[in-house]
Amino acid sequence: MRPFPPRRKRNVGRYWFIAGMLVFIPLLLGTRVWFVTQDQDLHNRATQQQTKSLKPHTPRLTVIDRNNQILSTDQLFYTVYLHPTVFFKETRKHIAQEVKETQVEAVAQRIYAQQITLLSQLLAPLVKQSASTLQAKLSDPKTRTVQLGRMLDSTTLRQIQEIVLPKTEASPQDWKRFSQQTIAEIPRNQRMGIPGLEWELRRQRYYPVGTNAAAVLGFINKEGIGCAGIEQFYQMQLTPHPTGKTCNDQKQKKEQQPSLKYQVYGFKQLLAAEAPLPLLPPTLNQRLALTLDLRFQDSAQRALQKGVDQFKPERAAAIVMEAQTGAILALSVTPTYDNNRFGDFVQNTNIYKAWPVTDIYEPGSTFKPVNIALGLDSGKISPKDVIYDPGSLRLSGYTISNFDGRGRGALTVTQVLQYSNNIGMVKLMQKMGAGAYFDGLRRIGIGQKSGVDLPGEPAAG
Question: Reduced to 3 states, what is the DSSP secondary structure of residue 213?
Fold first, then answer.
């Protein structure tokens, strides 16, 4: 038998070294981590990486008429773009495996031209442009970006997204199917969507009645500040976070809104639509109701335009007032503008004004019924009074005549109004007396602001 081999001496020093390292290294790393976590700058950077700030859009209040018809509101719109370079690359990729390499470019150009012709025809009614205009913009595959349309609603965007085009050259029968978008009849491997399509979501102020009530409603600029009409007069009430700035301020800044901070977990990107929005003020369910009535507003605008077409005045206005309350049911002016495209009219900013409110003008003969009412109310004039009209009258060094220069002899108060008689009106007011007449004018508010809810009203008189 062989004896047992002699025992080897254990390397105790090596074991202790390994054990020491197993203890020392974690201790070193732990100490380093502890010191790092105490660094405020690093702590702030980590917090910043893990936290996202969301500035929620808080829309302006909606404006309605007396029948709850929307006059002004915030609405979601899309601006849609197409990138022809991306489109062409996708078309080229589809045919690269079907033709010889030397023919790819020529075939791709031919198919691209056919696709763009079809796409332009399908897009034209959706984006309110002619097919020829769209085709001219998109025909060059080297063009980087083309804007197809702006202020498009979600329904129109969805219709654009659902358009299908041929992957390869389409036969006359296939062309008809693609033109009619009978997708069920087109095999899936022969069709494709619109490559290079992109859209941008924006929230924009929208005025459904457009030019009909632009003078009353006004508009807001890109900084969200009301610059005319109701939008300017009620700026502080319509916006959730008013800054006190006006449309005329030079260096305008967007209204500052409080931020909502939320935690990012792992690598998940939290979309804005998924974030809670507790910052919306409780007033957002409120609306600003006007006395305006869209039915009267539309009728007044039509009647006004008819008169303008017939008599060709430089400007005209029509106001409908509820006699019992003084409520303004309609205020129409011409010329007017489209407040959905207010930027198109910056060459003539006077068009933004509701000039029946902002401008002082002499009422002329339309003021005669007011004079008669004041005289009757004072008791100085009676409906039975009769005056004599010789045709002209010398007063304070001036000769006053009737509009036609004729004298009509004896006239009743009613006939003075009927003929809009200047001489008769002067004599009736002389019976009333200058002091009583002036006091009567002040009593009914002449020379004072009416208090209408529109900017720029002067004190008349």
Answer: helix
The string of pLDDT tens digits covering residues 223-270 is: 888 999 999 999 988 887 666 677 766 444 444 444 545 444 433 343
Residues in the chain: 461
Check whether the bond before 455 is cis (ω within 30° of 0): no
Query: For 51-102, what is each residue's pLDDT tens digit?
Result: 555 555 567 889 999 999 999 998 888 899 999 999 988 888 877 777 777 7
DSSP for 240-278, written as a single string: SS-----TT-SS--PPP---EEEEPPTTPPPPGGGS--T
H or E segment to which residue 306 belongs: helix 294-311
387 close to 427: Cβ distance less than 8 angstroms: yes
Contact 81, 145 (CB under 8 A): yes
| H helices present in 184-233, as ranges | 214-217, 229-233
Q: What is the DSSP string of 381-442?
A: --TT-EEEE-SEEEETTEEEE-TTS---EEEEHHHHHHTT-HHHHHHHHHHH-HHHHHHHHH
CA distance 330 to 322: 10
